[in-house]
Specification:
With about 425 residues, this protein is α/β, with parallel strands linked by helices. It contains 15 helices and 25 strands. It has a seven-stranded parallel beta sheet with strand order 4-3-2-1-5-7-10, sandwiched between helices. Strands 12-11-17-22-24-25 form a six-stranded mixed beta sheet, sandwiched between helices. Strands 8-16-14 form a three-stranded parallel beta sheet, with no helix packed on it.
Length: about 425
């Protein structure tokens, strides 16, 4: 094969996509937008093409989400990102519920067929390999299963190591672009989020292996860990917040059992500084999400600490993190995988954190979940719950005890009505705890 023959324009490359194909589109901060635009330009000639998307932070709404393309593209998402959220909420596309770590199995066993994978890759190294860079997550399985792989070859993509590497000879088509990656600004924690971060950090032991999410609360936790020693990183998403801890040697991965000495992730969400730090760095490994999120692999590390956010919680400890009532807002991601894995880990613990009320003043600790809300972490798995009013451990607590603890970290103005609801629901078993 002559490698030069695979290079072509984006419009030529997407001609490899046929009616009825199932097409995976890479996510994270690396959506191959040049290829997506070219695909959308074929919207008047293609029919019944299924487009799979997953976790992604997009610059704009996906160009194929247009009513005139309804017969051309069927949009299916494993995680509802901003690029397709409106389209799905209006009923033109849909979402496939699945733990993110289990999605690769859907591709590999043919349940969700992948004919074509659209990728955004780095420049080739001396041996002719390119890297998916910031997004190994589902891209690894998609590239493995697809019979046609079409890639943007992009100098803006860092070359990361691990499962996210493919040889140019495995590509059906390559398109040279210079397309900057989406940058996710580091969220500056509020005063309330700092209180949450400090409460969590106080409970994290030295030598813990961290899985940490994205946003103000996770960043507040990371800021509060600078006195810790010998932390490890085995996470789904790597963010800018971990860089100071790595650079200062606080995260040194020296006590990990799984890939000691290496920071392990499945995707990256951050600034150009993070992407440049990753580029060619052998101490950072990006793996297939089926591997990073496997609870039994996670559990091999001791003292795994899982830190995630949620949208609301009921008095029994049921956690909603993907929907606002019946409206799907995002997806499960790796929350369940790491909650489960951390609890299988020797000395492990999980934290689910949120502000006690919304920006509009709506209580987020509820007698029962909002009608239609999805349960992401069941009451059987919930460990620590944290708000700006403190941290409570639900592990081993009965339903009445859980209600009492959760009410203690609710916004004060809602505690009386929550107590009344708990009295009605749990009766004497709750009332006897009052004193």
């Amino acid at each position: 094969m002559n490698i030069a023959d695979i290079y072509m324009s984006a419009d030529e490359a997407v001609k490899l996509i046929e009616n009825g194909d199932h097409v995976f589109i890479q996510g994270s901060t690396s959506t191959p937008e040049v290829l997506c635009d070219a695909l959308a330009r074929r919207g008047n000639e293609l029919r019944d093409v299924t487009l799979y998307s997953a976790f992604a932070v997009c610059r704009r709404e996906a160009p194929y989400c247009r009513k005139e393309y309804l017969g051309a593209f069927n949009v299916e998402s494993f995680f509802v990102s901003n690029g397709v959220r409106r389209w799905i909420q209006e009923g033109y596309g849909s979402t496939i519920p699945r733990f993110l770590g289990e999605v690769p199995a859907l591709m590999r066993d043919g349940t969700c067929r992948v004919d074509v994978a659209l990728l955004n890759c780095s420049m080739p190294n001396e041996e002719g390999y390119v890297s998916f860079g910031v997004s190994a997550d589902l891209a690894t399985a998609a590239a493995e299963c697809a019979d046609r792989v079409i890639a943007q070859i992009n100098p803006c993509m860092p070359f990361s190591y691990g499962d996210c590497v493919i040889h140019l000879s495995a590509l059906s088509a390559a398109v040279k672009v210079e397309d900057s990656l989406v940058e996710v600004p580091t969220a500056v924690p509020t005063e309330e989020e700092i209180r949450i971060g400090n409460a969590i950090a106080e409970l994290i032991p030295d030598e813990a292996t961290l899985q940490i999410g994205v946003g103000g609360i996770p960043n507040a936790v990371l800021r509060a860990l600078h006195a810790h020693r010998h932390l490890g990183l085995h996470t789904e998403a790597m963010t800018d917040g971990v860089l100071p801890l790595i650079e200062k040697g606080i995260i040194d991965n020296s006590r990990k059992v799984v890939m000691p000495g290496k920071s392990v992730a499945s995707l990256a969400l951050g600034s150009r500084k993070l992407y440049d730090y990753m580029d060619g760095n052998p101490d950072i490994i990006f793996k297939d999400v089926a591997w990073t999120n496997n609870p039994f692999i996670i559990a091999q590390n001791p003292r795994v600490v899982s830190i995630n956010s949620c949208l609301e919680i009921d008095l029994t400890g049921q956690i909603c993190a993907d929907s606002i009532g019946t409206r799907i807002f995002s997806g499960i991601g790796g929350q369940h995988d790491f909650v489960y894995g951390s609890q299988l880990s020797e000395g492990g613990m999980s934290f689910l954190a949120m502000l006690s009320k919304t920006a509009k003043g709506v209580n987020k600790i509820k007698p029962v979940l909002t009608e239609g809300a999805g349960v992401v972490t069941t009451r059987f798995q919930t460990n620590y719950v944290v708000t700006e009013y403190g941290a409570v451990d639900l592990r081993g607590k009965n339903l009445a005890e859980r209600a009492r603890l959760l009410i203690s970290i609710a916004a004060p103005e809602f505690r009386e009505e929550l107590e009344e609801a708990a009295c009605r629901r749990f009766g004497y078993s709750f009332m006897r705890l009052k004193n």
